Amino acid sequence: MKSAVLSRVFPGIFLLVTFHHQHSLPLFVAAILVHATGGDAGRQGPTGWNAPSISPPVTGQLQ
Are the beta carbons of 41 and 48 closer than 8 angstroms? Predict the structure, then answer.
């Protein structure tokens, strides 16, 4: 239960930190690519990075 909450909150924190630090832009792009392609985070299912509210718009743009 706790891990599901963390996996849903962490991406938002990561995005905030990344946008705040401009020099982390390559890392942000890499994270988007991993997110869109399913990567390791994809195995977490609906509670992970590929949450339904986030995944469809991102994958739709890249495809």
Answer: yes
Which token pair is 33? 């690519």
Q: Where are the domains of the chain?
A: 2-62
Which residue's entry shows tokens 């909450």?
5
pTM for the structure as a whole: 0.25
d(CA 25, CA 15): 10
- The pLDDT tens digits for 5-37 are 666 666 666 666 666 555 566 776 777 777 666
In 3-state terms the chain splits into helix, strand, coil percentages (rounded to 5) of 80, 0, 20
